[in-house]
Specification:
By secondary structure, the chain is an alpha+beta fold. The protein is built from one helix and five strands. Bound molecules: coenzyme A. Coenzyme A binds next to strand 2 and strand 5.
Length: about 120
């Protein structure tokens, strides 16, 4: 199961040198990761853990980000989602570059916020 979105980086997402705040990128990863997990579980999910995120390449004002999230593991109540962030700059030839990736884990929950089996009806 997959989810993806595009987001343009604006000055309010960056520091005075024009580099994106890590928290902005992490927020996008968490949001799109949760869409993939909720799609697979067919129920609400909450984030329980964020792992292995590295910011290898700077993301700057004007970059177009594509966030791609794929469910890579389904447990009893939890799901692990691999999230990749590609950056692209209009008019540049080096095209689309993988800027960061990480693995986020979500738990399927009921209306009280308690864990429920992913595949329960
Ligand atoms: C997520 C939450 C509902 C889990 O409740 P819990 O009583 O701790 O649940 P359990 O111990 O039964 O664990 C549920 C599942 O999460 C997994 N899990 C728990 N902690 C984990 C961690 N640190 N990393 C990875 N998986 C984890 C368990 O392995 C289990 O998976 P499984 O059922 O597939 O085997 C609860 O911890 C919670 O509400 N956390 C806050 C969520 C939140 O607000 N997120 C937003 C962050 S601001």
């Amino acid at each position: 199961m997959e989810a993806r979105t595009l987001e343009l980086v604006f000055p309010e997402h960056t520091n005075p040198l024009g580099a994106a705040f890590g928290g902005f990128v992490l927020g996008l990863m968490d949001k799109v990761g949760s869409y993939a997990a909720a799609r697979r579980a067919k129920k609400p999910v909450v984030t329980v853990a964020v792992g292995g995120v590295e910011f290898k390449v700077p993301i700057r004002t004007g970059d177009l980000l594509e966030v791609v999230a794929r469910v890579v593991r389904v447990g009893r109540t939890s799901l692990t989602v691999e999230v990749e962030v590609y950056k692209e700059r209009f008019g540049k030839e080096n095209g689309r570059v993988l800027a960061t990736k990480g693995e986020l884990t979500y738990v399927a929950v009921n209306e009280k916020g308690e864990p429920v089996p992913v595949d329960a009806p």
